[in-house]
Structure formats: structure tokens, C-alpha cells
Amino acid sequence: MLFYQNLRRDLVKTMQILKLDKKNLNEFIFSLNDFGEVHAPVKKGDKQFVFSKLTDFSKIKLEYTRTILPPKKYFHPPTDTLFKFSQEEGYQSLTEELRKKYVIFGLHPCDIYAIKILDLIFAGEFVDDRYFIRRKNVAIIGLDCIPDDKCFCRSMRADFVEDGFDLFLSDIGNSYLVRVGTGRGDDMVRKTQDLFKEVNKKDITEYKRRSDEKKNLFKVDIELSDLPEIMDLEYESKVWEEIGKECLSCGSCSMVCPTCYCYDVFDEINLDANHGVRKRQWDSCLFKDYALVAGGHNFRAERSLRVKNRFFHKQRGFVAQYGRPSCVGCGRCIEACPAKIDIIEVINRIRGAKL
Amino acid sequence: MSTRSTLAKVKNDIYQPYLARIVKVLPQIQDHLLFQLKFEDPRMASNFTHRPGQFVELSVIGSGEAPVSISSSPTRPGIVELCVRKTGRVTNALFRLPLNALVGVRGPYGNGFPIDKLEDNNLLIIAGGLGMAPLRSLLWYALDNRTKFKDIILMLGAKTPGEILFKYELLKLIDRPDMKCLLTVDKDEEGIWKAHFGVVTKLFDYVELDPATTYAALCGPPIMYKFVLKELLKRNFSKDRILMSLERKMKCGVGKCGHCSIGYKYTCIDGPIFTYWDAINLPEMVE
Amino acid sequence: MVKPKIGIFGLTGCAGEQIMILNCEDQLIDILGAIDIRYFPTAMTKNDEECELDIAFVEGAVVQPKDEELLKKIRQRSKLLIAIGTCAVWGGLPAMRNDVPREEFLEKVYGTKGKSFKSIPAQPLKNFVKVDLSISGCPIEKEQFLKAVASLLHGDLPLLPSYAVCTECKMNEYVCMLVGENKLCLGPITIAGCGARCPGYNIPCHGCRGPVDEANVASEVKILKEKGFTLRDIENRLRSFAAQAEILQEQFKKE
User: Fold this and answer.
1) Region class of A45: left (phi > 0), else alpha (psi between -120 and 50), else beta
2) Mean pLDDT score of chain C
């Protein structure tokens, strides 16, 4: 028994914190190629960012706000071929590309938190192994961030993560504090051991100062505590109809949401009318056909009901299932919505705040 | 919210359909066929079992996948019976298949009826329209385990005799002494119907029900629920003793794809059997 | 297996759909192996004008009385009639200005000789005959056509997207032309299937595939106005490809 207690203490100790000089960052990232294809945030267009294969260190945008698509694309890609089929051989699982190894560098805490939420969904009674095989093959290196006017991760309690990453980098001026979260993270650090230093008192003071400072940088805030009850009470609110009038059902919010996981499944057959593939593809509860059953009955025929369902599922339904909203406050839906439907404003309206 | 435990569980593909052969097709009413399926893999054929009220995901190769409730009883293993209405892309394709064709089946899914709770109680089964498809599984389960249940009552309503699923099978039950089989139709143009006429709620006049020891299992069109629920509540049925099988759009059947969500629950894993109490406490559940 | 008999027809249009079919070079052999093309004058010299067809693919809008006549004949001889391309599905470019009398156009283009033509306001096929399936696009997408043929060969009606271009744009992680670049983009109300081809080249969606079902045109117009576009600019763009779509007509009547 004592042996296990000691072992456990040792294991806990492995969550170590080191220091990486900023000038050594490129060398460190270069070394990550041994753990998989390195992807990092790069610029797309004038103002936007995407996680993409890193070909040139100078392209990394460490100060990025948010990427167009969240990292879910690595575990639950927009389109995923599940099976090939034929009349003779039935359905054969396609798993080849699941095995590809990636290292994604620069995930913000909200995105890491979102992955932890996706984990809950794809686990459960039936475990989606396509998701989890990919999940195992993708290393995650987190990076702290400065909130902009659309970030409300702090309200959603996703501004800080204690796990869900292999390494996590926090800016403390000339260097990063590097938290090691997994054995794989430990391997990464040991591979370039010389680049890392011990953390001293000054570093800790600086980390705490910056962490404190960040708390005050949030410009938007949602009160979460009694939100489920208020959403229940306002189930028939006119607000939903008003938003229903604005919503385009374009699906943008669902696609860019780091925790929207809904998908459609369909078969594609070849010209020989025998062989083909079964695919799954991202879907959105805002689409007209989402709850339409064969035979023609649509359980959510009106747009306002679909809009309501989306907000309900994020902020109310998920709380009932898992004890917290599935929203992490990344701000992507606010940025992506052409109709400027803003979740913070919607919740404030539901709460009856005067705008 | 540790992710470590979930990462260890990966082992097989939950979406894998297993090949099954259509060994027999029994015509039912118009646009409804009863398909008898047998798994190709003998191990699957002998190991497959289910709870009444559960469903499978049925694949027609090249056309897609759709959820279908299981109509056979687990007391009669080896063959899986699916009563299918020709209504969508997959079911249309299924109807085109010849005898002995292969289809894909995975499951069973859903909670099914809480058999443990139902045992030692009276069982009141109320069906309308295609609602008999999942309830037939429960009915035969109860009849095949007759000693485990007290009174068994079936009430079924249809527009005409020609629209009763499993008609000949059910007509035979009328004479069975160990259960009460009450069938009613709105009208019979052929003039040969010998059972009851009128709406299904009229059948309540022919039975005595003790709400404390009876479970009611319902499946049918929304309009039927409305009137039957009223009748049951009038007779002091606890909302926990009223069980309903609900339909929603489904894709994955295993609680991932999101389509069948009602309020906070998924029809595919939390249902399709819900108590009336669950139903009224979830937004969106009953219209 | 008996190969299904197919006809590929063109009414008034640019033959873009038919060219697209011919452009399926890598699959043409497979297509010909699977179907029996009886009528395709753009590609063949020997065409059967009378035989019954399992599937007729019809391109182009109805712009002349003889288009209507041909279309009705096609319908009579075909089990399935499939509209291909935006002209056939929505009326397309020829239907942009149905509010202007045809005589004015004829005179402008052909001078006094225009009087010898007969022209009617351009309309989609569905205004004249039952259309079993619509594959829109200007031109149609090769992949979509091939998948549709494969589905039909298997006995199923093809699955076509019912969502908007935005969805595909986001899946491809393109920069948003509407929100990000403030361009006159019709992505939110245009039916997908093109893989957001234009936004991928930094060109806003012009709506060439026509509107999605239940398109929220009012909200789209409001958004564009807020961005500073004039109603005239917005309506001109809306009119370009699917001016005859009811859901867009509602908008034109409004203001």
C-alpha cells in the first residue's frame, strides 16, 4: 500500500513546471517534428487565423486571437469516411488515416477545455473509437492568451485548464513557463532538455502577476450561476422569436463552435452501383432538415425553435447532462455570425437586462 | 473531468453494421412489410439479444442507414423481425431488395422497456397505427414469460381492419384465456369485423384496472397519446407507470450525432421509452 | 442488368451543363458502361427522338415557345425528369429581367429583325412540367452530377445538400467574405454543393446555385444594407441567377 502511495506521489510530481527561454522556442518547436506533424496558428487573409501545417517558423502567430475552425477538426473532421462497402463484403471500417500523428502547437485554454467536453460526448456508454484513436495521436501544446472583446471564457470557467494538454506554455516576459501534463509532454521536454531551466521565485511572481492582470482584461461577462433556471423560466420568451427572425440558418456558428459535434451520416455509391463509402459530415441543429423524420414530420420546423434549441442545448441541456454548459466562451460564434447574433447579448436579453 | 480513463477504452467500431440476410418477408398492411433477418455470422445470430422496445440501425447497402424498432421478442432468438413502413430513402431501398439479399444491422440500441419493473405487475399495452411494431416485442415477451406477469391486456385501435398490423396474429389472441386482447376499428367497409368499433379509449370500458399494480405501455400517433393519457390519468395512473415509445430523427443511434435530442436527452440512448413523467419534464417532448 | 436509357437535353442556355458532363473525362467510360445514352445531340450524331427514357437530364430555361413544346415532349417520354443547371432549376441568367417586355430585348439585340423571333419571359422547368429532381449550379458541379448518376443507378434519388454555402465555406476554413471582408456575399442564403468555390478564391458568393429552402432573405438584405450596400446593388445581385425564385420575388415586391 505504501508503495502505491509513494508511486502516486511521484506521479503527481511529474506535473512539473519548467522554463523555456523565448529565443529557444523555434528550436523547441522544430524538435516536435519527431512527435508528429507540427501544426500551429498561422494567418489567413488579413485578419483571420487557422491551425495549419507549419512550414515556416516565421509564419507562427503566437499572438493570434482565435482560429476560424477550432481544433475539433483534428479529431472530428468536417467530413470523415467511416466505411467502404460493397454488396459482397459488407462494411469495412477505414482506419488508416486515423493513425497519423500530429502536434498542435498554441491551443488556448478555451480550446483545450472544449476538447475535454468533446471527450465526454464521444465517450460514454458507446465509445467512438475513431475520435479517440485520433485523439491519442494528436499531441496538444497549449499557450496562454490575452482576451479580446469577444472572449468570455472566464465567465464559462474555461480560461484556465489543469489538464487536457501535453505541455502548456505561459508567457512570463522573456520566457515561457512550461507545464508538463503528460508522459508524452515529458518526452518532448527531455528530448531538448538543455533548452529548459528551473523556475525561480521571480518567475513565479511574474506568472502570478500576469495571471491576475489577465482576469481584469475581460471586457464581457455572463453570469452563469442561475442561468439554467432562468432559461427554463424563459422557455416561451419572445426573445427566441426575435432571434429567429435574424438567424439565417447558415450553420456558421455550429461549424466554428469548438464543442458542436452533431453530424449527418450518408452513403456515397460508385457508378458500378455496388461499391461505395459511408461518410459522416458536420451537421447543424439550425438546418431545416435537422429534426425532419422520414414521413415528413419536422420536430423543429420553425427557425425560432431551432435557434432556441441550440442555445438551450449549450447553456441548459448540457448542464443537466454533465454539470456545466458546453460553451467555453471562445467567441467564434460571435465573430462568425453574419446576422451579429451574439450569445452574450442573447443571454443578457433572456436575463431581462436593459440594452 | 479527466480524459485519461476514456482514452483507454478504445477497442471497436460502434458504427460497424453486421451483415444479415433477409430470410423471409411477410406482407402486412399497405406499405408495411415484416422482414425476418438472420445474421450471417453464426455467433452474432446466436448471441444477439435485446430488450423489448429497443431498436436497431438498419443499413441498405449503398442507400444509407435508418433506425427501426425490433418487433420480435427476445424470447424467440435467432431471427430479428423488423416491421418497416415504406417511407424514406432507406426503407424504399429495402422494399426493392429481393429475398436473401444482405443488409447491415447494428444494435440493439435504446433503453427498451424496464422489464424488471414490469414483472409481477399487470401489463396494459395500448397501440395505435404503426405503434404495434415495438409493442409486439413486449407483448410476446410477456406471453412467453406468462407466469412473471399478472393480467395482460392489449388495446389496439386502427382506422379499419385492413390497417391493423399483425392482424391475424392478434385476432388469434382474442380467444386466449390468459390475456385480454381488445381490438377496435373506426369503421369496416367490408362489414365482417367482429371485434370492437370506436376509438381506442372506448376499450377502457371493458377492463378493470388497478393503477397501483399496472404499467401502461403506449405507442401510437400523437393524437392517440393525447386521449389515452387523459384516460389513464383519470384512472389515477402514476405518471411513472405510463411508458411511451417516442420517435425522433436518428442517425447514429448511440448518442453522438445529436439529431434525436429532446430537451436534455437523447431519444436513442435515454429513450426511446420514456415515462410520462420524463415526457412532461423535458421541453419539446410532447407537443 | 438492363442499362437505363438516358437523354441529355438542352433548352435555351449556354450548354454549360452538357459541357460539364463531357468534361467528366476520367469517368466517361464508366458512365457509358453503366447507362445507355439515347439522346445527347451536343455529343452524338445519332439521336433517338422518340424512345421512352428512364431518365432525362434537361438543361436551360424555357425562353421560347418551342422550348416549352420540347420540354413537354421530354416529360411524356421520361420516367424521371431532372433539371440540371441554374437556368433549368431557377430560370437563371435569362430570367434576370422578366419585368422588361421581351420585345424591348429583341429589338435591342436584333433590331427590326427581332420581330421574327418568338420569346417569352424566361422560366424554370418546374413552371411547365413536374420536375423529379433539381441539380442547380452555373455550371453544375461534376462531382454532384456523377454522384447523382451513381445514386440513380442504384435506384435512389440522390442526396443533395439543403444547407447554405456558408456551411461549406466554414468547413473549408475559408476567410468569410461577408463578415470578414464586408463584401456583397450571398453565401448565407445560397444552396451549397459547390464547396464554396468562389469564397475559396476570395470572391464573394454571387448566388449562382439559387436560394436555400426558407432562405432568410430579409435578414440577408438587412445585413448587406448595414454594410453600406444600396438596395439596388443588393437586388441586382439577388436577381442575377434566381430572380424567379418565389422567396426572392417576395423580397422584390417588398420595396
Assistant:
1) left
2) 94
Please spell the DSSP secondary structure of B80-130, one letter per residue.
Answer: EEEEEES-SHHHHHHHHPPTT-EEEEEEEES----HHHHTTSEEEEEEEGG
In this complex, do A335 and C179 lie within 8 Å of one another by their Cβ atoms?
yes
ipTM of the complex: 0.92
Asked if C155 lies within 8 A of B96 by C-beta distance, the reply is yes
Specify the 3-state DSSP secondary structure of C241: helix
The CA distances from residue A102 to A36, A137, B23, C41, in Å, are 4, 6, 47, 52
Q: Are C17 and C65 within one domain?
A: yes
Single residue among C110, C130, C154 that ends a domain in this structure: C154
Q: What percent of chain A has pLDDT over 90?
A: 71
Q: For C175, which of A48, A246, A250 is closest by C-beta distance?
A: A48
Residue C151 to chain B, least CA–CA distance (Å): 8
Nearest to A256 among C151, C170, C213 (CB): C170
pLDDT at position B5:
38
pLDDT digits (tens, 9 = 90+) for B17-62: 999 999 999 998 989 999 999 999 999 999 999 999 999 999 999 9
Q: Could you give the CA distance from residue C63 to residue C12 in angstroms, rounded to a whole number? A: 6
- Tell which residue, A200, A195, A116, has the closest CA to residue A160: A116
The verdict on a CB contact (< 8 Å) between B91 and A128 is: no
User: A333 in contact with C at a CB cutoff of 8 Å?
Assistant: no
Q: Where are the domains of chain A?
A: 16-73+92-215, 227-263+285-350
Q: Is A288's CB within 8 Å of C189's CB?
A: no
Q: Are A136 and A207 in contact (CB under 8 A)?
A: no
The answer, yes or no, to whether residue A21 has pLDDT greater than 50, is: yes
pLDDT at B3: 41
Helix (H, G, I), strand (E, B) or coil at A100: coil
Distance from C156 to chain B by nearest Cα, in Å? 7
Is the Cβ of B111 closer than 8 Å to some Cβ of chain A? no
CB nearest C154 (choices: A245, A273, A338):
A273
Strands A167-171 and A17-21: unpaired
Q: Enumerate neighbours of B (3 or more CB pairs within 8 A).
A: A, C
CA dist., res. B258 & res. B250, Å (int) = 8
Same-domain check for residues C140 and C26: yes
Closest CA to A179 of A125, A142, A205, A124: A142
Domains within chain B, CATH numbers bracketed: 18-109 (2.40.30.10), 115-245 (3.40.50.80)
Residue C160 within a domain? no
pLDDT of residue B10: 37
Contact B62 A273 (CB under 8 A): yes
Give the chain A residue whose CA is nearest to the CA of C28: A271
Q: Which domain holds residue C231?
A: 165-254
pTM of the entire predicted model: 0.92
The residue of A72, A161, A299 whose CB has the most chain B CBs within 10 angstroms, and thus the best one to mutate to test that interface, is A299
Higher pLDDT, A320 or B174: B174
Residue C86 shares a structural domain with residue C44: yes
Are residues C129 and C244 part of one domain? no
Q: What is the tally of structural domains in chain C?
A: 2
Average pLDDT over residues C158-177: 96
- What's C95's domain CATH number? 3.40.50.700
User: Residues of A with CB below 8 A from B16's CB?
Assistant: 83, 91, 93
**At residue A76, does pLDDT exceed 70?**
yes
Same domain (yes/no): C135, C12: yes
Q: Of the residues C133, C154, C175, which one is the last residue of a structural domain?
A: C154
pLDDT at A83 over 70: yes
Is residue C241 assigned to a domain? yes
Q: Cα separation of B235 and A12, whole Å?
A: 60
* CA pair distance C51, C53, nearest whole angstrom: 6
Pair C113, C77 in one domain:
yes
- Contact state of B258 with A283 under an 8 Å Cβ cutoff: yes
- Pairing mode, strands A48-53 and A263-269: unpaired
